[in-house]
């Protein structure tokens, strides 16, 4: 692993409550060993999404934030993404462009007749 490549943690499924502390320790250790401040969590093997998966991802993100980093999801099931949205959790997904402000000099289209702001 070089300085620019984030560490990858493959999350096995199904998720059991007993697995959570060990996976949190893995995230903490990967962040301490790496320099990117990101751990990519491959969630493709988690199986059908449920509240156990949501709880695990929330705890992993909290652990990463406390260690000064964050997690990024790889291979999420669309249903998992919908469930995370439903409970109000937002994660960066590998391959998706981050939402941000438009570049300087880019103006949004305005309908004629709109009042000036």
Fold and architecture overview:
This protein is an alpha/beta fold and 117 residues long. The protein is built from three helices and four strands. Strands 1-2-3-4 form a four-stranded parallel beta sheet, covered by helices on one side. α2 links the parallel β2 and β3. It is globular. The N and C termini lie far apart (50 Å). The model has no long low-confidence stretch (mean pLDDT 86).
What is this structure, in a nutshell?
This protein is of the alpha/beta class and 117 residues long. 34% of the residues lie in helices and 14% in strands.
Over all CA atoms, what is the radius of gyration? 18 Å
Unreliable stretches? none
CATH superfamily: STAS domain
DSSP E strands, number: 4
Please indicate the count of domains.
1
Main structural class? alpha/beta
Number of helical segments with 4 or more residues: 3
Give the biggest sheet. 4 strands, parallel
CATH architecture name: 2-Layer Sandwich
Q: Which secondary structure elements does this structure contain, and how are they paired or packed?
A:
Blueprint: E1 7-10, H1 20-33, E2 38-42, H2 51-66, E3 70-74, H3 78-87, E4 92-93
Parallel strand pairs: 1-2, 2-3, 3-4
Pfam families: STAS_2 (PF13466)
Protein name: STAS domain-containing protein
Domain STAS: 1-113
List keywords for this structure.
alpha/beta, STAS_dom, 14% strand, STAS domain-containing protein, 117 residues, 34% helix
